[in-house]
């Protein structure tokens, strides 16, 4: 199945990009792995594969240049004016349009466009009516858009932030660079629900950067990306430090669990009552005890990125700094 077939769109350069975006959103809601967490492992694997294929197809087709190159590959050749590498089934009108785009881009990169050339380039690219998307055509397939940062400076001031607005599918205001927040997806469509989408209301958001204090003084800024797992992962790390006496890095690396019993914050608010996901490193007897309490225990890999990526800076004795960077995702500790 090629990228056009994924979205049931005609195999041509001039596709309806607004329709492409609409179909991508609809299929994303159907195949996102988080919506299949209560399904059997085989079904979860199919959803993961379908989601990856969907993201790859969308990233290619939404960008006119990537779409040109993809069409050329589909036609079994690369276009040349002499036709030496053109596939036998390539329509002449498609190839001519490809040539025009390639030449306009080459001139633009070489800095040789005059006023007429700029107008020609603008005319070529303006055939695409898609709203520009944050993150560019090479965005991450797994949409790991949320990040986290914790800082304590030399004066003891703390900073904790979880920058997060999905930047792989959110439109950007042209000429401004500001993302139009898609956080309305964390609202509800049920008129009787307290979080129903309505004028003047703000949704309950998942980002939850934190600062722990001890005796009124800064002890540890900490946080993580991870949707509804954020608070669960952060609580486990905090208890590991504050109650079980672990050093920050040890607390972060300890095996983690996540409950899916509560409705997901994001539409369509899927939930799996009783489901508890646990990293495989958790002791078998602990998993058995959880199952005996009524949890439906589902095994994660030993290190699971969906378990969050908690980072922290702790104020140690005599003002020393202890840092923790979660190996479950790309995280780093920096000091100077």
Helix content: 25-40%
Assign the CATH superfamily of the largest domain: Gamma-glutamyltranspeptidase, small (S) subunit
Compressed to H and E, one letter per element, the order equals: HHHHHHEEEEHHEEHEEE
Q: Choose one word for the global shape.
A: globular
Radius of gyration: 25 Å
Give the CATH level 1 class of the largest domain: Alpha Beta
Mean pLDDT: 78
Model regions low in confidence, pLDDT < 50 over at least 5 residues: 77-90, 124-143
Tell me the domain tally: 2
Question: How many E-type strands?
Answer: 9
Kindly report the spatial arrangement of strands forming the biggest sheet: 3-4-8-9
SSE layout and pairing:
Layout: H1 3-6, H2 17-31, H3 41-61, H4 64-74, H5 92-110, H6 115-125, E1 149-152, E2 158-161, E3 210-214, E4 217-223, H7 229-242, H8 248-253, E5 257-259, E6 275-279, H9 284-292, E7 296-300, E8 311-315, E9 321-324
Parallel strand pairs: 6-7
Antiparallel strand pairs: 1-2, 3-4, 4-8, 5-6, 8-9
Structure, described:
The protein has helices spanning 3-6, 17-31, 41-61, 64-74, 92-110, 115-125, 229-242, 248-253, 284-292, and strands spanning 149-152, 158-161, 210-214, 217-223, 257-259, 275-279, 296-300, 311-315, 321-324. The chain has nine helices and nine strands. Strand 6 (275-279), helix 9 (284-292) and strand 7 (296-300) form a beta-alpha-beta unit. The chain has 336 residues and is an alpha+beta fold. It has a four-stranded antiparallel sheet. Strands 5-6-7 form a three-stranded mixed sheet. A two-stranded antiparallel ribbon has the order 1-2. The chain has two domains: 3-125, DnaJ domain (Helix Hairpins); 149-324, Gamma-glutamyltranspeptidase, small (S) subunit (Glutamine Phosphoribosylpyrophosphate, subunit 1, domain 1, 4-Layer Sandwich). It is 33% helix and 12% strand. The N and C termini lie far apart (52 Å).
């Amino acid at each position: 199945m090629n990228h056009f077939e994924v979205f049931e769109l005609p195999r041509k350069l001039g596709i309806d990009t607004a329709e492409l975006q609409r179909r991508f959103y609809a299929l994303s809601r159907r195949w996102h792995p988080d919506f299949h967490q209560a399904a059997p492992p085989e079904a979860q694997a199919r959803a993961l594969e379908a989601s990856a294929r969907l993201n790859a197809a969308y990233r290619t087709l939404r960008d006119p240049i990537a779409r040109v190159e993809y069409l050329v590959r589909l036609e079994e050749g690369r276009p040349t004016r002499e036709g030496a590498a053109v596939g036998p089934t390539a329509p002449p009108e498609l190839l001519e349009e490809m040539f025009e785009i390639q030449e306009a881009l080459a001139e633009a990169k070489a800095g040789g466009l005059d006023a007429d050339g700029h107008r020609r380039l603008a005319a070529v690219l303006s055939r695409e009516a898609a709203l520009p998307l944050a993150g560019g055509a090479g965005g991450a397939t797994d949409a790991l858009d949320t990040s986290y940062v914790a800082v304590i400076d030399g004066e003891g001031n703390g900073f904790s932030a979880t920058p997060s607005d999905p930047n792989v599918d959110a439109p950007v205001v042209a000429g401004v660079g500001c993302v139009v927040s898609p956080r309305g997806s964390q609202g509800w469509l049920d008129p009787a629900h307290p979080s129903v989408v309505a004028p003047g209301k703000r949704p309950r958001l998942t980002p939850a950067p934190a600062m722990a204090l001890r005796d009124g003084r800064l002890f540890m800024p900490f946080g993580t990306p991870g949707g509804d797992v954020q608070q669960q992962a952060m609580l486990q790390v905090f208890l590991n430090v504050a109650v079980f006496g672990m050093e920050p890095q040890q607390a972060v690396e300890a095996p983690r669990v996540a409950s899916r019993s509560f409705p997901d914050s994001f539409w369509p608010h899927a939930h799996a009552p009783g489901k508890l996901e646990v990293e495989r490193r958790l002791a078998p007897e602990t998993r058995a005890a959880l199952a005996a309490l009524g949890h439906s225990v589902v095994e994660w890999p030993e290190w699971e990125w969906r378990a969050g990526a908690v980072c922290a800076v702790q104020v140690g004795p005599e003002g020393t700094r202890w840092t923790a960077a979660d190996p479950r995702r790309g995280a780093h500790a920096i000091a100077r």
